[in-house]
Design brief:
Elements lengths: L5 E6 L7 H14 L3 E5 L2 H7 L2 E4 L26 H14 L3 E6 L1 H12 L4 E5 L15 H21 L3 E6 L6 H9 L4 E3 L7 H14 L5 E6 L5 H12 L3 E5 L11 H19 L5 E6 L2 E6 H6 L7 H9 L2
Helix pairs in contact: 1-9, 2-3, 5-6, 6-11
């Protein structure tokens, strides 16, 4: 393998709070180890278009507390093609980039895997609010997104209670229920709907509402993961059957923004440091991950072949105490 002297870093896919902390750690650790560090703007799209600049210690000053990503991010359909991937390899050669650190989700890692297969060493760092990277127990941005959702729902509860209303709140997570499951417990939701467990409207929502009404409860919070279905449709069904005023609230992309929590800043910093640690030792084509609260790494092919299951016992916790 060619000696690594210059390392590029990019953020790809959906932005996540803590990505800046990861970029900061990668750049500063790389410079401290004697590497030349190159920032690639707008993910793989920026790589193909040559949107690259050299970074120094001050390039990443005052960003650890900022949400989003200073390198920007974008989806790149061209890079999903063999032609686009080969173009990316050629761009790396033209720019003198010997290795890449890719911060993003599963799709971003598949791009890194393709580059690795053509001889460009890569390290992946999991950055996604959805926490749906199979090889890692935790992904950068997850904690911040959950705390943002909890803060918004706590505010929403005030008006829900004032009007004896049912609020159906849709949270992000694509096809994974991690955000919804934890937010449901944290906000005292009477029901939490996740893609991993099919729900029955009568059993899982309406029966629970009727039971709690008998004990004096008059307002209700229901959390719906976006992969389950449309919150408005569920709210319409609840109102049609129960007669209770039901309103849908879709939190949307507000969950992606905001200053990252301590956990996201520390995890991102540790992962960024570990990425350079691997490259310094010539250990390449890995994905950095969290296992048992420790920073570990896996071969990128192994990482992408892994599967992740959700702990649905938390649904039992929620259903037992949210009555």
């Amino acid at each position: 393998m060619k000696e690594i002297k210059t390392i590029g870093v990019l953020t790809s896919g959906g932005d996540a709070p803590g990505m800046n902390a990861a970029v900061r750690a990668v750049v500063r650790t790389g410079i401290s180890k004697g590497f030349r560090m190159m920032g690639i703007q707008r993910g793989y799209n920026g790589l193909l278009n040559g949107e690259v600049y050299e970074m120094n210690l001050r390039s990443v000053s005052e960003i650890i507390h900022r949400g989003g990503t200073v390198l920007y991010t974008a989806r790149c359909l061209e890079f999903k093609t063999e032609e686009g991937q080969k173009k990316g390899v050629e761009r790396c050669r033209e720019l003198g980039i010997d290795a890449l650190v890719v911060i993003g989700g599963d799709g971003s890692f598949r791009g890194a895997k393709a580059l690795a297969s053509y001889g460009v060493p890569c390290i992946g760092i999991p950055g996604t609010i959805d926490n749906d990277i199979a090889c890692s127990e935790y992904t950068i941005g997850y904690d911040t997104a959950m705390n943002t959702a909890v803060e918004m729902i706590d505010k929403l509860r005030d008006t829900t209670q004032s009007h004896d209303r049912c609020s159906v709140v849709e949270v992000m997570g694509r096809n994974a229920g991690y955000i919804a499951l934890n937010v449901g417990i944290a906000t005292g939701a009477i029901a939490t709907l996740i893609p991993e467990r099919p729900y029955d409207l009568e059993r899982d929502i309406l029966d629970r509402m009727r039971f709690t009404q008998k004990t004096g409860k008059k307002h209700f919070i229901i959390i719906v993961a976006e992969g389950v279905g449309h919150a408005q449709d569920i709210a319409n069904e609840i109102q049609a059957v129960s007669g209770i005023d039901a309103r849908a609230t879709i939190l949307g992309h507000v969950q992606r923004g905001g200053s990252p929590t301590l956990r996201d800043r520390v995890t991102a910093s540790s992962m960024g440091y570990h990425a350079i640690y691997l490259l310094e030792r010539g250990i390449v084509n890995r994905v950095v991950a969290v296992s048992a609260d420790q920073i570990v790494d896996y071969d990128i092919n192994v990482a992408l072949a892994m599967h992740k299951t959700i702990d649905t016992t938390l649904l039992d916790v929620s259903s037992t105490i949210s009555i």
